[in-house]
Each structure stands twice: as structure tokens, then as C-alpha cells.
Specification:
With 437 residues, the protein is an alpha+beta fold. It has helices at residues 2-14, 16-21, 27-37, 39-60, 112-178, 184-218, 249-270, 301-307, 326-392, 398-432, and strands spanning 24-25, 65-76, 79-81, 86-88, 93-108, 228-229, 275-287, 310-318. A hairpin with a 4-residue loop joins strand 3 and strand 4.
């Protein structure tokens, strides 16, 4: 999925003049703009980076800790010197210094740290699945708006062409009425048709502008940027093969949640086990009050550093005995949550199967509908042309003519919508199946 997004982003960045400068947007370019501009998608990718950092933190917790400490103290007057073991009194200065390296390693803690690392890895997979689900939802929203915008654009163009035709017919009818070949009824019919076509054009234009506004909003484009939609490609591969529900992103997410809950059960159970920790330290010190037993003078610095060295190691064992049944209750809660997720998975299985079956049925229906509407369009077109010729020689009335023209217009509008409906249902089916589209 990320590779596909990367290709679209590269296309968006390398072709700015084609996409924005010329204001031409097709389905592929629209997706690339969506991927580049959508703030929710950016947040989703950021969440993935946060979880990756959490993995590094959890992995670092497996390593032993190592620390260094140093202290240098100058005191005048009364003080107990821990190195020489003397109580220093009087108006004299004493100098005390120490330094040490310490290390600590958790040898056993019921597998808590290992399970935390595994849970963070699963959280990363869940974050990636969330991004995939968000992409699917955004693409479906974009597909609906993009398709509706194309439908409204073509309907507006068809209404405009019909308006010009009815305007010309009205002009011809008025000329023929002057010569006595048409009546007021014929002219009235032409005026009514022209007024209806004007209204249809206004409505179609308004619907197109509203759909473009919504499309611009989802693509996060400036209001000043004009959008010129390009027609859809008809060479999109058909959806073939069986639908594997286990590859559905919603089912995969439930599976990962179940795996995460298994680790939560292990984490809850791990508090039953003892904790074993190894600690070690190596250090030395110096004191200006430590005297050489033979000479009675202050012992030299490096000699003290060598003689005062300290190395120790210890094992600390902590065994839980009673915690007010907190561990037991936490374990029961984790198991109940897992059972609830299993029920949720069953519901998702049914829901996703039904959704795919409905999408597949609507896709097949749209193909059959397109064939039927194409045939109806051809029939109504032929019928209108025939009645128009008969009307010119006076064998049909204006009522028959404009009735045939209206049926022809309606079939044309339905055909336009049906063509884009096939495109919509095909892409919708591919998105549900998580196929490249």
C-alpha cells in the first residue's frame, strides 16, 4: 500500500504543471492529491512513526543499565570521613572524593519486557492497518464525489446542448408561424420545452458546482484553484477471482487485536512470577584525611585509588505473595476482552461478506443496466428522429414531437449516469478487495 502511495505522490510532485497548472484532474491524479494533502492521512503516518519509536524503547529496556557516579566534597570543621573512619574536628579542611560504575540487569520478570516488545510490534501492524482502513474510507469518499462530479458535468453539458436545440426549434417555430405553417399551440409547446430546458440547465450547473466544491474540500485545494475533470478510463481491469475474506483489512485488524490480547493475557499472568535482578558496582575513593600508617603522612592519591577499590555483585529476588487478587482480576478481564473480540470477529465476518456480496451484485446490475439503457437510448433516438421528420411534413403534432424529445432526453441522462455508475461500482469493488485501481 505504501509503495502505491509513493508512486502517486511522486506523480503529484513531478507533474505540478499538468495537475494544477492546467487544472486537469483524472481519477489517478485525484488520488495522488488526496494522499499528498489529506491531514488525517498525515496524522496516521505520524502515529506509525510514534509506534516505531515505542518499539525501540521496548527493545532498549531488554538491555542492562550502566551508570557512572562521582562525588567530590570539601569540608571545613566537624565531619566524619568515611574513607579514613575518623571524626575530623577543628579548623581544618578535609577533601573527600569517590567514583563508581554501576550496572543492573533484570534476569527474569515473568517475560514482561519481552511481551511488551511483542505488543509494540503488533501495535505497529495495527497502526499500519488503521492507515490502510483510512485510505480505503478516503478513497471511497473521493470515488463517490469524483463520480458524481463527472455525472453532473456531463448532465450539464447535455442539458446545455438540449437548451441550444430547443432554442433553435423555438426560433424555427416562430418563423413558421409567421408564414402560417404553425399555430400558437405549436409555438407554445416549443416555448414550454425551451423553458424546461433552461431550468434543467440551471439545476445541472448548480449540482455540478456543488459537487466540485465538495471535491475541492476533500482534496484540500484552494478555492482559487479551478478544477477541470478528465473523463474516466474505460480500460480498468475487471474484478476476477474469489474474494478471500481473510485478506480483508477489517478482518486482519481483528486478528491483530486478538494477537495483542493474547499478549495482554501473558502480561497479566506474568505478575504471578518472581522477579530476579542482578546488580553490580565497581568504584574507588580518596580522602585527604587518610594517613600512611608508617610515615604518618597523607597517603598519596593514586595509592589510595588503588587500595580503596570496591567491586560487588548481588542477586535480588522479589516474590509476590498477595496483592488483593488484582492479578487474578486483571487476568480475568483480559480473557473476557479476548472473548468479546472473538464475537466481534464473527460479526465482522458476516458484515464484510454481506458488504462485498452487495457491492458485487450492484456491479453486475450496473453492467446489465448500462446495456439496457444503451438499447433504450438508441430506440428513443431513432423514435425522436422519425417523429421529427413526420412533424416537418405535418403527419405528427408538436405534442408528439416534444414527448418523443423528452423521452429521448431522459434516456440520454440515464445513460450518462449509468456509464459512470459502472465505473463507480467497479472501483468500489476493487477498493473493498484491496486491489490496485
Amino acid at each position: 500500500m505504501k509503495r502505491i502511495i509513493g508512486v502517486f505522490l511522486l506523480l503529484y510532485l513531478l507533474l505540478p504543471e499538468v495537475v494544477i497548472g492546467q487544472k486537469k484532474i483524472n481519477w489517478e491524479i485525484a488520488k495522488s492529491i488526496l494522499y499528498a494533502n489529506n491531514i488525517n492521512l498525515k496524522q496516521s503516518f505520524l502515529k506509525e512513526k510514534i509506534v516505531k519509536n515505542n518499539i525501540n524503547i521496548a527493545r532498549g529496556n531488554l538491555y542492562p543499565s550502566l551508570s557512572f557516579s562521582a562525588n567530590n566534597q570539601h569540608t571545613m570543621g566537624l565531619v566524619f570521613d568515611p574513607v579514613s573512619g575518623r571524626l575530623i574536628t577543628g579548623d581544618q579542611w578535609s577533601n573527600y572524593a569517590t567514583g563508581s560504575l554501576g550496572s543492573s540487569l533484570v534476569i527474569f520478570q515473568g517475560g514482561q519486557k519481552q511481551n511488551v516488545l511483542e505488543s509494540e510490534k503488533i501495535n505497529l501492524e495495527l497502526a499500519q492497518l488503521d492507515t490502510e482502513m483510512l485510505l480505503q474510507e478516503l478513497e471511497l469518499q473521493l470515488l463517490q464525489l469524483f463520480t458524481q462530479s463527472l455525472i453532473n458535468r456531463d448532465l450539464w453539458q447535455a442539458a446545455g446542448s438540449q437548451q441550444e436545440l430547443s432554442k433553435e426549434q423555438l426560433r424555427q417555430e416562430e418563423e413558421l408561424m409567421k408564414s402560417g405553417k404553425r399555430t400558437l399551440i405549436d409555438v407554445g409547446q416549443a416555448k414550454a420545452k425551451h423553458a424546461t430546458d433552461n431550468l434543467n440547465t440551471v439545476n445541472a450547473k448548480n449540482a455540478y458546482e456543488i459537487s466540485i466544491l465538495k471535491l475541492r474540500q476533500i482534496l484540500d485545494l484552494n478555492d482559487s484553484e479551478e478544477i477541470q475533470l478528465q473523463s474516466i478510463s474505460q480500460d480498468i481491469m475487471s474484478v476476477t477471482g474469489e474474494y478471500n475474506i481473510h485478506n480483508d483489512v477489517y478482518i486482519k485488524k481483528i486478528d491483530k487485536q486478538l494477537a495483542l490480547q493474547e499478549i495482554s493475557i501473558k502480561l497479566a499472568r506474568s505478575t504471578y512470577f518472581p522477579t530476579l535482578v542482578f546488580n553490580s558496582s565497581y568504584g574507588t575513593n580518596y580522602s585527604s584525611q587518610r594517613m600512611d600508617g608508617l610515615s604518618g603522612e597523607t597517603m598519596a592519591f593514586w595509592r589510595q585509588i588503588n587500595q580503596n577499590r570496591t567491586l560487588y555483585g548481588n542477586l535480588a529476588l522479589t516474590l509476590p505473595l498477595f496483592d488483593g487478587n488484582r492479578t487474578k482480576n486483571n487476568l480475568n478481564s483480559a480473557k473476557l476482552t479476548k472473548r468479546n473480540l472473538l464475537y466481534e470477529k464473527e460479526k465482522q465476518f458476516v458484515d464484510r461478506k454481506q458488504k462485498y456480496a452487495q457491492a458485487e451484485l450492484e456491479y453486475r446490475y450496473s453492467e446489465e443496466e448500462l446495456k439496457a439503457l444503451q438499447l433504450a437510448y438508441e430506440v428513443n433516438k431513432t423514435n425522436y428522429e422519425a417523429i421529427n421528420e413526420r412533424y416537418k411534413i405535418g403527419k405528427n403534432s408538436s405534442i408528439d414531437l416534444y414527448k418523443a424529445l423528452t423521452e429521448y432526453n431522459i434516456s440520454e441522462y440515464k445513460l450518462i449516469s449509468s456509464r459512470y455508475r459502472v465505473f463507480f461500482q467497479k472501483i468500489n469493488l476493487r477498493i473493498i478487495r484491496n486491489m490496485e485501481n
